[in-house]
TrEMBL record:
Keyword Ligase applies: no
Chain's gene name: fliD
Name of one Pfam family that matches: FliD_N
Subcellular location(s) per record: Secreted; Bacterial flagellum
Residue stretches making up the Flagellar hook-associated protein 2 N-terminal domain: 10-107
Entry keyword Chaperone: no
Name of the protein described by the UniProt record: Flagellar hook-associated protein 2
Keywords noted in UniProt: Bacterial flagellum, Cell projection, Cilium, Coiled coil, Flagellum, Secreted
Assembly behavior: Homopentamer.
Domain Flagellar hook-associated protein 2 C-terminal: start-end pairs: 211-450
InterPro entries, per the entry: FliD, FliD_C, FliD_N
Function: Required for morphogenesis and for the elongation of the flagellar filament by facilitating polymerization of the flagellin monomers at the tip of growing filament. Forms a capping structure, which prevents flagellin subunits (transported through the central channel of the flagellum) from leaking out without polymerization at the distal end.
């Protein structure tokens, strides 16, 4: 507990003196706090470099995926037919021509119902499925509560969770309309009201029947002898007509052409993303290790050779090009690369597919050059591109692992320093208390001496 003892007897500024003495005592703790601040700044810089390396690793991983090199772009000749490329490895270039013969529909069943009163005795039985008598048909029994009115029936059907939606349409006349709809399209999602709606004012009527969408290729099944066939779907989307392409139809139409081509521009975009990520990593490393000769000031990681060396080793990988095993060489060799012999090695300059270094030490990418090289020899550029991506991914991953290890070490160091700082807080608090007591005792002693002096002076003056 702090006690002010300034000038009680001595007139000394003891609080100021204690503060000055405590500053001297706290000098070791201050040096520890400076070390913590410096270490925290370095950790932030390491983390910034690590984030750039992680971005490079992720970009390389994306480029190296087989799905990237097998991606296609899909186009349709019709504004009512949408063709969308699907991510995956099962895709191929090609063209198909078809007629849209039917669209997928959901079943809609209606009946007139009274505006008030009950329309059911309490239990409704509905069969859902293709209604072909197979095991795919399912009989559903719905038990109503106290409300057996049209709205109560609609609410019970909706709550049953059997894939049906029911509503009561108010017409403004002497009767309303109970409308029951299938939630999904397709003939497999039909339904039938078997019993329980005896109180409706008119027979149940199928306004629309559940049906599949159908495409005819080459004249459809009617021309099977000449290669024609038909394709059906319970929705208006066909996912298996063309590898890697999803086709969605919305109107009956003939002679629709859908084409899928290799998405070279998409590959080039991912190559550009990798180059951009590499340049970002180089820039970040440069910023964190820079040294200003004019001001003689360095950056947080100026003295870390391992971080500075990342830039040099990365640029070397680009300038030296690629050397890798031909993946298509000698198919008779064992599948395990480690047991193969006489493997053909391929060396290729990265400039062949548009990657180069400029005069500033940054990477550049020529998309037009890449596209031309790919169109000339797709298999070679794919093999080289995937190898380049794999090597960059491994390199960035290894460097990130090293940086992460350094960050972990620095954080442990900071934790240790903070522990020492906390210990110093206890020691300094005890020291301050001791100094305050010392000076307080001094003032007390001086006060006693002063009182004795005053008494003695009074005694002497009385003689």
């Amino acid at each position: 507990m702090s006690t002010s003892v300034d000038g009680l007897v001595s007139g000394l500024q003891t609080s100021s003196m204690i503060t000055s003495l405590m500053q001297v005592e706290a000098a070791p703790q201050t040096r520890l706090k400076t070390k913590v601040s410096t270490a925290q700044t370095a950790v932030a810089s390491y983390q910034s470099v690590n984030a750039a390396l992680t971005s490079l690793k992720n970009s390389a991983d994306s480029l190296g995926q087989l799905s990237t090199w097998r991606a296609v772009k899909a186009t349709s000749s019709s504004s009512t037919v949408t063709a969308t490329a699907v991510t995956g490895t099962n895709s191929a270039s090609g063209t198909t021509v078809f007629n849209v013969k039917s669209l997928a529909k959901n079943q809609i069943t209606t009946a007139k119902v009274p505006t008030s009163g009950d329309i059911s005795s309490g239990t409704i039985q509905i069969t859902t499925g293709p209604l072909d008598g197979s095991t795919n048909d399912k009989v559903n029994t719905i038990t109503l509560g106290d409300d057996k009115s049209p709205k109560g029936v609609a609410a019970a059907i909706n709550a049953a969770g059997i894939g049906l939606k029911a509503t009561v349409v108010t017409t403004g006349g002497s009767s309303d309309i109970l409308q029951i709809s299938g939630a999904k399209t397709g003939s497999a999602n039909a339904f039938r009201i078997d019993s329980g709606l005896d109180g409706v004012s008119s027979p149940l009527t199928n306004v629309a029947s559940a049906s599949n969408a159908q495409l005819e290729i080459g004249g459809g099944d009617d021309n099977a002898a000449n290669g024609g066939y038909s394709v059906t779907s319970d929705t208006n989307t066909f996912a298996k007509l063309m590898p890697g392409v999803s086709i969605t139809v919305s109107k009956l139409e003939n002679d629709v052409t859908v084409t899928s081509d290799q998405d070279v521009s998409g590959i080039a975009s991912k190559m550009q993303a990798l180059v951009d990520a590499a340049n970002s990593a180089l820039s970040e490393i440069g910023n964190q290790t820079a040294y200003d000769a004019a001001t003689k000031k360095g950056s947080p990681l100026t003295g870390d050779f391992s971080v500075r060396n990342i830039s040099q080793s990365l640029l070397s990988k680009i300038s030296l090009g690629l050397t890798y095993t031909n993946p298509s060489y000698d198919k008779t060799q064992p599948s395990d690369p480690s047991t193969r012999t006489n493997l053909e090695k391929i060396s290729i300059s990265l400039s062949k597919f548009g990657v180069a270094l400029d005069s500033t030490g940054k990477l550049t990418f020529d998309s037009a050059k890449f596209t031309a090289a790919y169109n000339e020899n797709p298999l070679q550029i794919q093999a080289a591109g995937i190898e380049f991506a794999d090597q960059m991914e491994k390199y960035a991953g290894d460097q990130s692992t090293n940086i992460t290890s350094v960050i972990t070490g620095r954080k442990n160091e900071i934790d240790g320093l903070n522990s020492q700082i906390s210990n110093w807080d206890i020691r300094l608090a005890a020291k301050r208390t001791a100094l305050q007591k010392q000076y307080s005792d001094l003032e007390t002693s001086l006060g006693k001496l002063k009182n004795q002096s005053t008494w003695l002076a009074g005694q002497l003056s009385g003689l």
